[in-house]
Amino acid sequence: GEETVSSELQKPLASFNLSEYFKQFLFPQNECELHDFRLSFSQLKWDSWIVAPHRYNPRYCKGDCPRAVGHRYGSPVHTMVQNIIYEKQLDDSVPRPSCVPAKYSPLSVLTVEPDGSIAYKEYEDMIATKCTCR
Amino acid sequence: SQASRGEAQIAASAELESEAEPWSLPQPTGRRDGSGLLSPLFKVLCDEPGGAQRLQPDSGALRYMKRLYKAYATKEGIPKSNRSHLYNTVRLFTPSVQHKQASVDQATGAMPSVGLLFNLDRVTAVERLLKSALLYTFNDSVPFPSAMQCTCHLLLEEPESSGQTLPRAPYSFPFASQSEFRKKHKWVEVDVTALLQPLVASAKRSIQVSVNFTCAEDRLWSPSARDSPVSLVPPSLLLYLNDTSTHAYQGWYSLHNKRSPPQAPGQRGPSACPMGREAARGVRARHRR
Questions:
Q1: Helix (H, G, I), strand (E, B), or coil: what is residue A3?
Q2: What is the dihedral of CA B240, B246, B251, B252, to 10 degrees?
Q3: Which of A71, A102, B78, B184 could bridge to A132 as Cys pair (CB 3.0-4.6 Å)?
Q4: What's the CA gap between A113 and B34, in Å, rounded?
């Protein structure tokens, strides 16, 4: 990337942030992390009985698990062993470690029941809040 | 073969799960399923048409529950952490009016009353009652003098179908102060936990009460005050419950883990009922052991 660096260096120094520039080489672009997905209950045709919330963001985990998963994701040693088996192709059926949710938060829902009564309920584990590699 | 093996595994695990917790699988609509949210989720996943037809809720009741939702959860639907109550479920039932006695009964002198029937079919076996209240809605058409002292008389009745007779012990609930009737308050809750606890605990599916409401202008304000019946919109029934199923959020429990609950009883707020305190004390005792 010499020509890139030299062209970047032509720019006024204020706009060029060296640490930002090198950050892209430190971690893979699409590393395992949390992504948003704003679902409106009308997409599931549930808005006739779910009164609130209007939008629900369950979030999801997506991305590649880097090799050093231990310190970044709190993964157990088993994950690194599985990664080694995968990278050395010791067995084709062993997949690469997966990017999955590690923690969740609850969701409060206001619903109209079939008999016309109204219920406010709090459900556990409805929104992913943290990802890990397993 | 991979896919069919997978489906076979799903069916097998569903079979296992159904033995373990029957309510966790989609029940045919109309039966009491333990978790209202999950069965429609399964229906969507199996590409079945959306949920069953639903009766339209009362608009005043819906307005109250939206207000309660805003008090308990953020716009994204996250339960607020400054909660001081123990319940994770609130159900509001609107009554079907059984009978109405519009004026004072000349023979018995009984005040005008209204018979209400509440169908509690949606309350599941895993929901524990912590508190119940009659919810009165005041619309602007009912003229209320500024200072009122009111009493609500309740009489438990047994639906004809059951044939049993309950002790017709009337319950009276005086209102603490006229401040509850200031015009800006749209709703007033009359706590009837003591009255309904045994009925809801015995998994009764319907409750019939006859209610009458008498108010007297505050003697201090107008010496010529007299008891006068007030005709109000029939009240709804609010049940504050703790859903003990694994899918329900036990917020007060996780709060207990993070930090000790507020000690001073006043901090807990009026909504926690003695039963709830017992439950929380039980958890705390277990923890200490």
A1: helix
A2: 70
A3: A102
A4: 13
**Buried b or exposed e, range A26-50, using 16+ CB within 10 angstroms:** eeeeebbebeeeeeebeeeebeebb
* Dist. CA B22–CA B34, nearest whole Å: 9
Of A52, A113, A115, the CB nearest to B69: A52
Mutate to test the interface with B, among A123, A125, A126, A127 (most CBs of B within 10 A): A123
CB burial of B153-192 (b: ≥16 within 10 Å; e: otherwise) equals bbbbbeeeeeeeeeeeeeeebebeebebbeeeeebbbbbb
Q: How far is B213 from chain A (nearest CA, A)?
A: 24
Q: From CA B242, how far away is CA A62, in angstroms rounded?
A: 35
Structure tokens at B89: 């479920």
What pLDDT digit, counting tens, does each position of B2-13 carry?
A: 445 555 555 554
Taking every pair of Cα atoms in chain A, the longest distance, rounded to a whole number of angstroms, is: 71
pLDDT tens readout for residues A27-82: 667 889 999 999 888 888 888 888 999 888 999 999 998 876 666 778 888 999 99
The position carrying tokens 């929104």 is A127
Contact B78 A52 (CB under 8 A): no
Q: How far is B247 from chain A (nearest CA, A)?
A: 5
Which of A109-123, B76-90, B104-118 is predicted least confidently? B104-118
C-beta atoms of A110 and B52 within 8 A = no
